[in-house]
Design brief:
Layout (H helix, E strand, L loop, with lengths): L5 H26 L10 H7 L13 H18 L4 E2 L2 E2 L9 H22 L3 H36 L1 H8 L8 H26 L4 H26 L1 H4 L5 H16 L7 H30 L13 H10 L6
Antiparallel strand pairs: 1-2
InterPro entries: TspO/MBR-related_sf
Keywords: Membrane, Transmembrane, Transmembrane helix
Length: about 325
């Protein structure tokens, strides 16, 4: 029977606490009461710095979905403190999510709070820097989650299939990979929006030029991700499907606000092209995942499912390149 891990319990609890604090600050930033820590709401600041790719206000309601999904993820992690299997409590036997995941999460949420204050003070360059790091830590969260499933996926598939799908599932609400995927994608888009503001208002680039740069970067990122997820890291990120819906949501908000059929601008036409591309790539992605799920199931023929979590962990330490 595995022993309890006080350090792991501490980082899980700390992860929940910093998230709760962040939710309080986000609520305060949303109202912008002058009696509170923020002098203006996030929406009011956004209205001051209008760009050609700033989406409609309703688009930002996705934050409600993101925070609900992340809350559900944390509830799942908290339940692992109480749930047991034959080897011990689920939070440490097996320790699917490494300490790096929790450290990245805590840094991410602290930066989330920091960005709210920078945005309130209209410190756009500093805010952009923080957003870049937020997006990067989100990528780290996905990496650590995928690494954990790479190590223990076959064991979960054999002994705890529900947990396997709660961590990476297609449809489950309380799961990790796709929730982080939504958060990572939206913060990437937010970074591009902030970058556009810096180019336009700080660097003096024209509205059209600033929008073109950011839309071009988004195009490169979307195409690059499609290649990576389908042909480079396919076995690790197979069931992450939330990237394109988030991109589509952001682009729809942009089209709704800026596209004029009678007099379309270059930025709005570029946005429509990106929207069509994102939808097409999403359909292609779903079809590829369905086909591979049936024809090339993960963990088929794997021998790690017969090992205990402790044996898998020991092998992983001896050989970090251990294949499932």
């Amino acid at each position: 029977m595995g022993n309890n891990s006080p350090v792991r319990i501490m980082v899980i609890v700390l992860s929940v606490l910093v998230f709760i604090i962040a939710m309080i600050f986000n609520a305060l930033a949303g109202t912008g009461s002058k009696n509170g820590p923020f002098q203006q709401s996030t929406g009011n600041v956004s209205n001051k710095y209008e760009t050609e790719i700033t989406p409609s206000g309703w688009t930002f309601s996705i934050w409600g979905i993101i925070y609900t999904w992340l809350s559900a993820m944390l509830i799942y992690l908290i339940t692992s403190l109480c749930r047991k299997n034959a080897y011990g409590r689920m939070y440490c036997e097996p320790a699917i999510l490494p300490y790096g995941f929790y450290l990245s999460w805590i840094v991410n949420i602290i930066l989330n709070i920091m960005w709210l204050f920078l945005w309130d003070k209209e410190q756009m360059v500093a805010g952009l820097t923080v957003l870049v790091v937020i997006a990067f830590t989100n990528y780290l969260l996905i990496f650590f989650c995928c690494h954990g499933l790479h190590s223990y996926g076959a064991w979960l598939d054999k002994h705890h299939r529900l947990d396997l799908w709660l961590i990476r599932a297609l449809l489950a609400v309380i799961q990790v990979q796709n929730g982080i995927g939504v958060y990572a994608t939206w913060t990437t888009i937010a970074t591009l929006l902030n970058f556009t503001i810096v180019l336009q208002y700080n660097a003096g680039l024209s509205k059209e030029g600033a929008a073109a740069v950011s839309l071009s970067l988004l195009l490169i990122e979307v195409v690059a991700w499609f290649v990576v997820e389908n042909f480079v890291l396919e076995m690790h990120v197979r069931y992450i499907l939330t990237i394109y819906p988030v991109v589509t949501w952001a682009l729809l908000g942009n089209v709704a606000k800026h596209y004029n059929v009678a007099t379309p601008t270059r930025s709005s036409v570029f946005t429509v092209v990106l929207l069509v591309l994102a939808c097409a790539l999403f359909v292609a992605r779903v079809l590829l995942v369905i086909w591979r799920h049936r024809k090339q199931p993960l963990y088929q023929g794997s021998n790690t499912g017969a090992l205990s979590p402790m044996d898998i962990s020991a092998k992983q330490k001896k050989n970090p390149q251990l294949e499932d």
